Amino acid sequence: MRKFKTESQKLLDLMINSIYTNKEIFLRELVSNASDAVDKLYFRSLTDSSVQLAKDDLQIRVAFDPEARTITVSDSGIGMTEADLDKNLGTIAHSGSQEFKDANDFEGTDAADIIGQFGVGFYSSFMVAQDVRVVTRAYGEDQAFMWESDGVAGYTIKPAERDTHGTDVILTLKDNTDEDDYDHYLSEHTLRSLIKQYSNYVRYPIHMLVTKSRALEKPEDAGDDYVTEYEDYTEDEVINSMIPIWKRRKSEVSDEEYNEFYKGDFHDFADPQRVISVHAEGALSYDALMFIPGHTPFDLYSRDYEKGLALYSSGVLIMDKCADLLPDYYNFVRGVVDSSDLALNISRETLQRNSQLRAIANKVEKKITSELEKMRDNDREDYDLFFDNFGRSIKFGIYQSYGAKAPELGPLLMFYSLKEDKQITLDEYVEAMGEDQADIYYAAGDSIDRLRNLPIVGTIRAKGYDVLLCTEDVDEFTLQAMRTWQEKELKNVSTSDIDLASEDEKKVAEEATEENKDLFAAMQEVLGDSVSKIEVSPNAMDAPARLTTVGQMSLEMERILAQGPDGPQVRAQKVLQVNTQHPAFETLKGAFGDDDKDKLRLYTDVLYNQALLVEGMPIEDPLGFAQEISKLMS
Ligand code: ADP
Ligand code: MG
Predict the structure, then answer these.
(1) Which of 42, 98, 172, 257 is the most buried (most CB within 10 A)?
(2) Domain 501-634 falls under CATH 3.40.1500.10
């Protein structure tokens, strides 16, 4: 007896015992493996002339035996060697065991979804079977092998007999319990409807022996009162439709069919948000069927996430996830591209340089963009949901291209508008701008509520201008990469280069700064390197002081980058702007006038730290700050 790996046991346990719903998907998983095995063999025959296949070599069969309580899924595919059996079926989730460990908290998730995600499809058999046997013979080998397991601790592999290449997976069903009736799988009707529901578009015929009834011929000597007699007979039938769903016109396919196809093929538990279907003919002919998922896949932003569309050449799968078909910013799109223009035996290595493929990728991208624009213009509620799910990818696209992609992707962006109290596009912002407003204003930080209350946001609002409140890490980087939109500068309200004050106001502030330069020099001594300058704020505000920055690096960027590897090294150049209209300023001046060094130190420090807090920045010495506050109160 060979043992399953430890994490495998954990996963097996989870699957078998905590998945109460949807046990029926075991059939879909087995059929999909059978179809993959046939695909692999067919693909080999196209690229290796020594592999000759007959038509019957490309089929799948489902059979059942009520007496023995078995269900058998057979294929004439590539089969497995003894080593394959050990590797592929002995280590559960060998491709995804790490993710499994990382995402160990499955509470509240749909466990059926996990099966697909971790590539443990085969093990779903143990949801219904007490024993599974896999009899298989690899193409080109004489010896067959049988793998057998009860799905608890381990498995055995022994030599076996099989006439031709391919695989039989034989499930012996569990005994019925009060909650679960496993016997109902042992019926033609159930199996047929499961195949139709989950595997209708599998490209190879799925055969099943079905029982039919026919009228017996009327005997010669039958009297007038003869009642027609019937007999049962069995017939081999192909259950699935086989026509790939992406070849069919959108008008001929129901939403249900699309949803089932999507969920089955892309291992999602939820319906897609949008279906995009393309049939192109002419210079470049291809069919594409794409889906925008209804939720963010949990691993979308992890390193292991693989983008790409499945690539078929005239119905034959060339590769599962062709990354070259999708730009990174549309990495969330799932689907299929099928083109008769691609040479079948094209190698995976040369795909990248293939000009047809690049042309298709281009069209696919344009199509996705135009569908998103349509959704944005005609279905804003849907688009809101879409943008919450995947807006991040689009923002990254602009940032990573240093703004080069802004003309295409910029119109898709949305940010929260202070004035409108909802997400709006940049075009909508510009449209609503008054004549006197020259720039687009945005504030970046971790929460809308905090941004709304920033002193500078209040100042801008008082002028009647709108401010975009940006709460995703990537927002500020994206907007900086864009620089402008519709020739209006995108300005971060937290940096000092925003020009809200009038010339007069600026002059007054400069003069006041000059007047108080001794006070500011003393304060600067207290704060040291923490700020590069102290000055009088040219803008009216309610707060006693605010922090702003000079140069490219803003406070929010410092905060985000501080979480990264070279965090503490990168610092924004901070400017403390003091509000001379605030009573706190008189207190400061008083302490300075009395030459009370302790008080001046205390007040300066408190002023600086509370300005940091208002900007959402961590303070360097929270305990010290708390003590200072207590001192103020006592
Ligand atoms: P996945 O299909 O996602 O790879 P599965 O758990 O469904 O994961 O299958 C594990 C592996 O076992 C497959 O990748 C394949 O190599 C092998 N396998 C399963 N069923 C068959 C089959 N009918 N013929 C050949 N190989 C198979
Ligand atoms: Mg599988």
Answers:
(1) 42
(2) no
